[in-house]
Amino acid sequence: MPETIKGKMKSIMEIIKIKKRFSRQLTVFCFLIPSLFTSCVTVQPVEVRSVDNFELKDVTSNPYVQFDVNIHNPNSFGLTLKEFQSTAFLGDKMLTDIFIEKKIRIGSNSDISIPLQTKPSLQDITNMVFSGNSSKDLKVNGYITVKKFLFKKKFPFSVKTRM
Fold first, then answer.
1. In this predicted model, which residue has the larger pLDDT, 111 or 22?
2. Whether the Cβ atoms of residue 95 and residue 54 lie closer than 8 Å to each other
3. Helix, strand, coil: what percent of the chain each, to 5?
4. Spatial CA neighbour of 142 closest among 46, 42, 65
């Protein structure tokens, strides 16, 4: 009887060794394959194409600025927008900073429009309205960070438009 138990124990130990070996191979495979595929695929720069519908609202009571940012994904695969950071200038005067950490899905080969709203300081609003600055040039600088699977990439942008 003890020989049978020894034989069964030996069989169980061999099965455990095979499972451990398979587990290691599976782990290596799961981490190696995605890294090989990412070296074959390059992420084309995601572009901020334009800034539209710039408006200064409720100047007298509760002033805020809103505008739409149009983003284009030229890649053949979808991405997730992880971060959006920008600074808006009216003429040569800084108007406001915007920072968003909201996940927004961007489909493959598509354009999206993201409505943004921010509340600049009252001093910035006052300077903009009463400075006599006749410039209607709006410039937005910043960067966007996109993510696909485990990989992130940051793209700078600069967009100019006339109001």
1. 111
2. no
3. 30, 45, 25
4. 46
Work out whether strand 93-100 and strand 104-106 pair parallel, antiparallel, or are unpaired.
unpaired
Q: Which residue has the higher pLDDT, 113 or 163?
A: 113
Express each pLDDT in 30-63 by its tens digit.
Answer: 666 665 555 556 778 898 888 888 887 776 777 7
Cβ atoms of residues 111 and 162 within 8 Å: no
Q: How many helices (H) and strands (E) does the chain have?
A: 2, 8
- Three-class secondary structure assignment of 90-115: ECCEEEEEEEECCCEEECCCEEEEEE
- Could you give the CA distance from residue 125 to residue 129 in angstroms, rounded to a whole number? 6
Fold (topology level) of 47-162: Immunoglobulin-like (2.60.40)
Tokens, residue 147: 């993510």
Judge residue 105's burial from the number of C-beta atoms within 10 Å of its C-beta, 0-12 exposed, 13-18 middle, 19 or more buried.
exposed
Domain ranges of the chain: 1-40, 47-162
| Cβ-Cβ contacts under 8 Å for 51 (sequence gap 6 or more) | 67, 68, 69, 70, 138, 140, 159, 161
Model pTM? 0.66
For residue 111, pLDDT beyond 90: yes
